[in-house]
Amino acid sequence: MVLFSTARILSKKLHQSWHSRQGNGLLLCFLLCCGGLPAQAQSDSAPDDRQRFIDARKAIQQNREADALEHMAALTQYPLYPYLTYYQLSRKLGSLPYPEVDAFLDQHRNTYLGDRLQRQWLSLLAARKRWHEYQSYFDPARADTAQTCTWLMARLNTGEEAALAEVEPLWNVGRSQPKVCDPLFKQWQASVHYTPALAWSRAVKAIESRNRSLARFIGKYAPEPAKADIERLVWLDRYPSEIRHTRKYGGNDSRSQYVVMHAIARLARTDAKQALQLWERYDANGLYPDQARRELQEQLTLYLSRQGHDDHAHALASSMTDGSSEKLQETLLRQALENGHWQRVQAGIRELPAPLQDSDRWRYWQLRAAEQLGQNHPPFAKLENEWQQLAQKRSFYGFLAADRLGLSYAMEDEPSMVERADQEWVANHDGLARARELYALDQVHEARQEWLYASRSLSPAQLQAAGNLAAQWGWHRSGIQAMIDAQAWNDLQVRFPRAYEDIVERQAHSQDVDPNLLFAIARQESAFAPDARSSAGAMGLMQLMPATARQTARKAGIRYNTPDLLTPETNIALGSRYFKEMLSRFENNAAHAAAAYNAGPHRVDRWLADGRDQLPADVWIETIPFTETRGYVQNVMVFSVIYAYRGGVEPESLKGRMPVSLDLPTNPVSSFQGQRPPELQASP
Fold first, then answer.
1. How confident is the model at residue 287, as a pLDDT?
2. For this structure, is 298 an active site residue?
3. DSSP structure class, residue 613
4. Residue among 133, 371, 450, 525 flagged as catalytic
5. Residue limits of the Transglycosylase SLT domain (predicted)?
6. What is the DSSP letter of 377?
């Protein structure tokens, strides 16, 4: 107890003097890094303080109170001092030290540590069934679902039956909720608040979230008549072709109509033509709601187009008198590009909303269509000026335009210029100081949380200053994100760091791969976060799946364990080898190799089948079926150019990276009259 009280007094003194002393030290470091102060002004105390912090933390963990107090007395101005008081308090929460908890939460309100302690404290109060206290510490603005369920249960356990009226928004979602909510939901479902309409509503949300098992579970315990409706919905979600039994499913009530439309949409994924035929039978009486009807027609059009039924797709799209959605318009445009229907491309672009028409993407394709239709000569001389304007953009389409004109790429490189007042404010920011020290101590998760909390309150100029700081620390992921949040798109030095340059250059030389492509992939995959993990399980700088890494390591004779993927040396070594393998497989076509790196080589094999390997390179990329992969390939191509520029070398042209010609057939008007060419009939 004496240890904590003394530490708390020291912490309070630190809090009062923080800005006047520690802030100046951080400003000194900031100015030094930026060249504003001479090198001899740099302090040598940081490494010593970091070691003292480690020693103090260890002493707290080992209950060596005297040693902990001695270390803490020397760290009162160190940015991570609050973490030591937090560690102390965390170890004694079981004794329910209300005054100490209150003091810490008051002092560290709206900070990562404050919220972290509050979560621990609420969990303890719930475990001890301290329901009144739980309610007093609960903050709805900061609560997650589990805490909110516990709060409502606390109110019920203290006799407040009205809490049941607030359960429905928690229950009526398309996903499973935490198990701690189950007792609350059980009481709610036994009350008057639970109705067949709510059971149906949640089942629909579950189905639309592709959570059939949850919908089935809801149906199992749903009251009638929702129970039968949900069972029918789940059945047709699994077996949509059963919707062909029109007499069985042709009811006119809203639930029956939803079941029919959902089944038609599901069937369209595999057989859009049959789905369209069945829909025309169901829709013959015109009783379906207009908005839902339109949404289904758009889905049918999309799948008809993707499956090669272009005439049916265009006929259905034309029947929508109030126009098509942007997604549908762009899908039909890409289908027209793949089939060489340049008149459709030109007409379709003119129907896009003005912001889309003015985007680099559709400006490029409007110009390409004009050339293919013979409009690149008088009286269409202005096309050359439009090509020139597009070539001044730092984008995939701007670079393609520059290739067409034989011009150098426009880099639009403008380093951030931040006012000194903003630099000083950021240099004095407590949260950013803690983030830096945690990052230096390799406590990356805590560092990232401190950074996120701090960045919420920063202005665009302050974000740019913070981004420059992070870049100087070598924390490239946060520097990149800060510039994105500040919309400082032209600060190429921070947004495109040549991180881990020695490793990248060495592995590129070993594999005979352009290092700028490796930089581009690492930048796109993880923004140079060595600890990055995806929801699919990919790991590290170049986001390798463990199975892919294991196979690549075995081929290369490299000793490998899965945790090694979080070390830059191993990750880049294996990632560069795998990318080289993709380049070799796809005849050194960087666009195809990048697509394979993202979506898998077997998918790219399908996308190159049935004559699509003969498409012009820009058309092939634009018509990649996966939106994510399409953007991925375009980014890697552009990023490789930027990294060449950042390295001071002449970049290889995009045309050179994509061996399939950008030149198009000489016949500007397709003779297929709405049909896909015979060699392209198969769906990619």
1. 86
2. no
3. G
4. 525
5. 505-611
6. S
